[in-house]
Write a structure and sequence with these properties.
Strand order of the largest sheet: 3-9-4-5
Distance between the termini: 30 Å
Order of helices and strands: HHEEHEHEEEEEEHEEEHHHHH
Strand content: 15-25%
Radius of gyration: 23 Å
């Protein structure tokens, strides 16, 4: 039976979520070890210049670990052919193309709004059954206002605010597969820049800059634990002497800074320590800490003596408890699907938190978080004339300067 786009997405999400939960059960922070010992470059597409984030970071990163790929580069089959690279015979599907089973699905999400259609006299436009008709539009945010771009009489795209009462929501509008370039022949060697993990002294200086860029005050105090006080909007972390390394200190700090983005990103911090909401917020902060560590080229701490030990336990205990309570019943599959939805929603929120943290850090230090590692191996792609997108200038600059890019344009998923 042919799998639909959504069944493929759900299958992939389930595999990733259950693998991460399985790794979490190993105890302590060992579940993060493969993540932080991988390539010094994040998973990315060197042809388009895309650095994968959120759920797509998880797909490429975790599948890369599961399959033993050492190369962080991924590309579509079409891009592989365009670049003149070859698919080895043992990786082919019998038609000269690459075996589809070797691909990893990438989700492209966008914000969309449904605007009620009206007649020239202003009355609602309906179908024969009297149901209101809608126009689906791509929504973008400009200066805190949601709207869309429409082509004006002058041929230029102009921003138009959404009608009152119309609210955008996220939709997965495209799904396609990418393949790890370690499977392909003729690919240039990975141009790894000098991005070895910083030594402990450098990490300490980096932590100073991260603290200076924080949206709320950070206090280093004599306490046993780190926490974000959302009532007073302050972060407290143990003094650095309480940690076995500056990397351990920074990992704990980034976790709390992930929490501290909640007010700025309209994320609710509700529920007691046994609730689904609390567990969800904990995994958002923990994933944000990992994503931020990757962006800063710092290995996240995995030492069980570190103050950040066990940050994920609330999430593990909540969902394992839920799954165990319905094991063997008709509710099990629905509960597992709920878990997958929650985990990948957390990944998206963690990616937003990381963008917020890293953008502020870059503004503080005046340069991209990762040093330039551009490459000009492949020809430049002509810019297409399209409507403006909602990608920030800071984000574009970071993507354009951080990765080994074979084409000049920086795109984001």
């Amino acid at each position: 039976m042919t799998m639909t786009k959504f069944s493929r997405i759900n299958k992939q999400r389930e595999e990733i979520t259950m693998r991460v939960l399985e790794d979490m059960e190993k105890g302590g922070n060992e579940w993060k070890k493969p993540w932080v010992e991988a390539s010094p470059l994040p998973p990315h597409n060197p042809v388009s210049g895309t650095q994968y984030s959120g759920r797509n970071f998880l797909y490429t990163y975790v599948y890369g670990m599961m399959r033993g790929y050492a190369d962080p580069r991924w590309a579509t089959e079409k891009q592989i052919k365009e670049m003149g690279w070859k698919v080895p015979e043992n990786q082919q599907n019998g038609r000269g193309g690459i075996n589809d089973e070797l691909g990893v699905g990438i989700e492209h999400w966008g914000m969309y709004a449904y605007i009620p259609r009206v007649k020239k006299d202003g009355t609602p436009l309906t179908d024969k059954g009297g149901t209101q008709k809608f126009t689906r539009v791509r929504a973008v945010k400009e200066n805190g206002v949601w709207g869309r771009y429409r082509k004006g009489d002058n041929g230029k795209y102009e921003f138009e605010q959404l009608p009152s009462g119309v609210h955008p929501h996220p939709e997965c509008d495209r799904y396609f597969k990418v393949f790890n370039l370690s499977l392909i022949e003729g690919v240039p060697p990975l141009p790894v820049p000098d991005l070895a993990p910083n030594d402990d002294i450098e990490v300490g200086l980096l932590a100073d800059d991260v603290i200076a860029s924080s949206r709320c005050e950070v206090f280093e105090v004599s306490t046993d634990g780190a926490y974000y006080n959302f009532v007073n909007d302050k972060i407290s972390v143990p003094s650095r002497e309480a940690f076995n390394s500056n990397s351990s200190f920074l990992a704990s700090l980034l976790h709390e800074m992930g929490h501290s983005t909640a007010p700025a990103l309209d994320r609710q911090m509700t529920g007691d320590m046994r609730s689904k909401e609390y567990a969800h917020e904990e995994i958002v902060a923990e994933l944000s800490s990992i994503f931020s560590s990757v962006d800063l080229a710092v290995k996240a701490e995995t030492d069980p003596e570190a103050a950040g030990y066990g940050e994920h336990v609330a999430y593990l205990e909540f969902w394992k408890g839920r799954l165990d309570s319905v094991a063997g019943t008709d509710e099990y599959e629905a509960t597992k699907e709920e878990l997958c939805d929650d985990f990948f929603a957390a990944a998206s929120q963690a990616s937003q938190a990381t963008d917020f943290i890293i953008d502020r850090y870059e503004q503080e230090v005046g340069q991209p978080a990762r040093r330039s590692c551009r490459s000009s191996i492949c020809p430049k792609r002509r810019n297409r004339k399209t409507a403006p997108t909602a990608v920030s200038r800071t984000r574009r600059k970071r993507l354009a300067t951080r990765l080994p890019t074979y084409r000049a344009t920086a795109q984001t998923l």
